[in-house]
Design a protein that fits this description.
alpha+beta; Deoxyribonuclease I, Chain A; seven-stranded mixed beta sheet; globular; 23% helix; 301 residues
Length: 301
């Protein structure tokens, strides 16, 4: 039985690799590129540089994602971001466990992942993990994906809706670089079915930035517009540390509170913050999600 299981795993990985290689050319057409702002060659291996991306895959079909590309196409985009852009660490949202496992295998030996599931909390306090539809794709959740081992993996406790979808914050250390990365997927407005008027993002953002230090990259899908002058309604949810102590990937100057759109609706919802020296920022617009991938290059020395 053990030998047969190993054979099945080997065959499955071989099929995944073959499929993704065949889709690699397709991925280029699925991924429209915005200019990279670091002046360097995309994918160039430079000592001390880390290229990290956050991307909401829109992989949970029942959440309005049925027409955003196949699971194989989404995996091919991840491989393209790794091969062409040189991304070695991903923060992923709305990903299914089976898709994450297949993406990890497709990216090759040495890639590692960490996953936490979304759960729905009912009015009796019972938590039920969210399952992905569209075949045996496992649970839905958010994840970290890295070309080097992840250590000190931990879910950071944050305030969540009393009744409704529980998202969260997941952190881990890239031991090879002594860098902490934290992936956050924040609640949406009205997420608490028992208290629709309650706001959670302010507490979640405060928790997220409190969990960081000078060698941390924090980001994810914040389900929030930047605290710009035009965002009068929800500008208050942002802690001062977000743009005061840290710098966002697409922050043009120190006083800026804007950034290019990362969502199909034309607003910015995805972020990458750090105190490390930023060397570049790009928005990779995909045809396989309602979100663009946000890619940042930092100097880790």
């Amino acid at each position: 039985m053990i030998h047969r299981r190993r054979q099945r795993r080997f065959v499955r990985r071989a099929v995944v690799r073959t499929t993704v290689v065949c889709l690699s050319l397709l991925a280029t057409s699925l991924l429209a590129t915005a200019p990279l702002r670091d002046g360097g060659r995309s994918g160039a291996a430079v000592s001390g540089r880390l290229r990290i991306a956050t991307w909401n895959l829109c992989g949970v079909e029942q959440w309005g994602c049925r027409n955003t590309g196949t699971r194989q196409e989404k995996i091919a985009v991840l491989e393209h971001l790794s091969a062409a852009d040189g991304v070695t660490a991903f923060m992923l949202q709305e990903v299914c466990t089976t898709d994450l496992d297949d993406a990890t295998a497709a990216l090759g030996k040495g890639w590692h992942s960490a996953f936490r599931a979304y759960a729905y909390r009912d009015d009796r306090g019972r938590l039920t993990p969210v399952r992905c539809t569209g075949g045996a794709r496992g649970r839905a959740g958010f994840a970290l994906l890295s070309s080097s081992p992840l250590s000190k993996v931990a879910r950071v406790p944050s305030r969540q809706p009393a009744v409704g979808l529980q998202r969260g914050i997941l952190c881990a250390t890239l031991a090879a670089r002594d860098i902490r990365i934290c992936n956050a997927h924040l609640s949406v407005v009205g997420a608490d079915h028992a208290h629709p008027s309650w706001e959670y993002r302010d507490d979640q953002l405060k928790t997220l930035f409190a969990a960081a230090d000078p060698r941390t990259v924090i980001g994810g899908d914040f389900n929030s517009s930047p605290p710009s002058a035009s965002n009068r309604t929800y500008r208050w949810i942002w802690p001062h540390a977000a743009y005061g102590r840290y710098r966002e990937c697409d922050q043009g100057r120190s006083g800026s509170r804007t950034g290019r759109a990362t969502h199909r609706s034309g607003v910015k919802l995805d972020y990458l913050f750090t105190q490390l020296d930023g060397l570049g920022c790009s928005v990779r617009r995909t045809r396989t999600s309602d979100h663009s991938a946000l890619v940042m290059t930092v100097d880790t020395r």
